[in-house]
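Lab notebook, bench 4. Still working through the backlog of constructs that have no structural model yet. Next entry is a single chain of 88 residues. Request: give me the structure tokens for it.
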Amino acid sequence: MAAAQHAAIGAKICTNSMFRLFAFESSRLVAAGRALADGRDCAYLCDIAVVPGKETFYEGFGFRRMTTAMAIFEDPTKAYANGYLDRA
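Model written out:
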């Protein structure tokens, strides 16, 4: 999938979410997340993503790494080398 297609999918996902947050450090995206909500009383956090190396900051807020998360990467070897996967 081309980068433009990834961007379009990401834009659609975020546009359809009531709440979304993008965290930047020195103009570099380091985290993103969104919440699905009904606008009244129900909401849940989903798709919380953190750049590898920033986990300790979020652990201070109670976030913990999940061992059940799954993802598909175009280049699993590169994803492994970048720390996104525990095995290629």
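Notes after review: The longest strand covers residues 28-37. The first helix runs from residue 3 to 15. Flag for follow-up if needed.
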